[in-house]
Design goal:
Layout: H1 7-70, H2 75-92, H3 99-168, E1 173-183, E2 189-192, E3 200-207, E4 216-225, E5 236-239, E6 245-248, E7 250-256, E8 261-267, E9 278-286, E10 289-298
């Protein structure tokens, strides 16, 4: 005989099904809420991590800025790193925080720390080398200064010795004689006392012996000054240190043989000059230095 469900049993089944669905719905809602809470907590964690990494990178950026001020060797490299770091910081500011982004920022931080450590080490080593070089330079400069002092001292002694030797080698004149002469035909020479008869002046001077002086070609300068203060036969000029020029009548050249000798030379007037009556002054110069002088009167 066939059994049929009663209304009461059917209602029980429906209640059980509805209850099960309600439980499933509650479970799903709980699971969804739990996942959302977990995701929210994870997102907050990544955002915090992102903020921490960005703050660390900005701190590193400041360290690179400070290093750039104290490191003149790696300026280009530091500048390039700072530019790239600025680009990274600008680009991640608006990116959503997640595991990949946080890991990338951590990797950038590690690389920058390694480079910063290397640059600081190299800068320190270079500064130490420069300090050693500076010490060596100071030492060399000190030694060079000492050497220059010694050189200057030796050079001064050498100059003084040269002056002493030059002074010792000078030739001295002990006597100067002069007379007016007339040159006649067949080169006969006679002494005259009248100005109008004179062809020229014969000037002689005695050179003392000086064994220290070197033998060879020597010279003194003869200057004959007329009564009207004109240099007779003035063909030669020599400049003094103050740019004042001295006019000479004749250069008396002779060969010195380390013994006393008498040197004579002839001074004659230029074509536009003539002898006049009065007192003539005869000066002998060694270069620009007057070493002897005498006078001659012509009627």
């Amino acid at each position: 005989m066939e059994k049929t469900e009663t209304p009461s049993s059917s209602s029980k089944v429906q209640k059980i099904i509805i209850g099960a669905l309600i439980l499933l719905s509650i479970g799903a809602l709980y699971f969804a809420f739990s996942n959302y809470s977990q995701l929210k907590e994870n997102q907050q964690f990544f955002e915090t991590e992102k903020s921490v990494r960005i703050a660390e990178l900005k701190s590193l950026q400041k360290e690179y800025d400070d290093l750039q001020l104290n490191d003149s060797i790696h300026q280009d490299e530091i500048l390039e790193i700072n530019e790239r770091l600025k680009i990274v910081l600008d680009s991640v500011e608006d990116l959503k925080a997640n595991t990949a982004l946080v890991n990338d920022l951590q990797r950038v931080k590690r690389n920058l720390l390694a480079k910063l450590k290397r640059l600081k080490l190299e800068n320190k080593e270079l500064k130490e080398k420069n300090a050693l070089l500076a010490i060596e330079k100071d030492s060399i400069s000190s030694e060079l200064s000492s050497a220059l002092v010694v050189y200057d001292s030796v050079n001064e002694i050498k100059k003084n010795l040269e002056l002493v030797v030059a002074k010792a080698q000078k030739l001295f004149i002990s006597k100067v004689d002069s007379k007016a002469v007339k040159i006649k035909g067949s080169n006969k020479v006679s002494t005259v006392t009248k100005a109008k008869k004179a062809s020229g002046l014969e000037v002689c001077f005695d050179v003392q012996a000086n064994t220290v002086a070197e033998a060879g070609e020597k010279s003194f300068y003869i200057q004959v000054v007329s009564p009207s203060k004109q240099v007779i036969g003035g063909r030669y000029y020599m400049n003094e240190e103050n740019n004042r020029s001295i006019n000479f009548s004749k250069v008396a050249k002779f060969r010195y043989k380390k013994k006393a000798m008498t040197v004579c030379d002839f001074v004659e007037p230029l074509e536009n000059e003539s002898f006049e009556s009065g007192k003539y002054t005869i000066n002998i110069f060694d270069g620009i230095n007057l070493v002897s002088s005498t006078a001659l009167n012509l009627k």
